[in-house]
Fold this protein.
Amino acid sequence: MKYEILRRTAGFRLTILAILALLLAAALLAGLRFGSLRLDAAEILHTLLSEREGVKYQILWNIRLPRVLLGALVGGSLAVSGAVLQGIMRNPLASPGIIGISSGGGLGGVLVLLALPQFSHLLVPAAFAGALATAFLVYLLAWKRGIDPVRLILSGVAIGSMLGAASSTILLFNAEKVAGILDFTVGSLSTRSWPQFRLVWPYMLGGFLVSWLASSRLNILMLGDEVAAGLGIRVERVRLLLLSAAALLAAAAVSVAGLLGFVGLIAPHIVRLLIGSDNRFLVPGAALFGAALVVGCDTIGRMVMDPSELPAGVIMSLLGPPFFLYLLRRRTHAA
């Protein structure tokens, strides 16, 4: 009871956000430090600040730094997308991967890779179109005088499976045209560098800002459509805005990291347990924890089979299903 009262205070929530920021900083440092060449913090700082050539500089600046920064963006984007979707649909099991948005974005990205490989700048817009269309389709299928949680999950799983199968079929029949097929299907940051970072950061920043600036309205929306309308919220307009932001974040992440699952499910829930459901704090908290989670999983994947590596998506797939089953069991007992 005391903790419930404590975690509702702004000071406590800001303290948790500061701790999450430190956790992210530690994950970024570990990502820069560990690999086939291990470096300590002093070497990292000296190399990045003072050197402009050499093996250490090339490894840090062209391989590890863009990879960990991109991993942080991907993890934060997926986590915020999951937090927003859970709020919009008032369902703790909603996430970009589970309700099919990631699969829709992945299909849009695959089509661009095959049909218009010379127009790489269209990758994120195409993934966004696929993710947004999928989000609306799942929403419509789940709607029947309101959103039913069971219909939402079942519709999302069905649509996501169909789109995932379509992407896999296209990739299998065009394997010679697309590099890194396995990385894309399981979710990986391998070989990602500054071009991918520059491609997606504006979309991710825009999606995060929209989500955070609209977080107060999302709080009201979670009270129910009738209550929100009574408080002066234009329900469908706000829902459309937030749904678009969530789809953009998921699509941008998928376009560079592939189908990296469960981040949007795990991160918001863990942060919600720490600081509650106020989206003004939950959105930035989920972004920080999701970023640390993906960077940490990618670093572990690089370490466990050195000099080979496991994709970050494999590590997340080991963590995600048990947590998902825990949520299902918890909801069943609550019902």
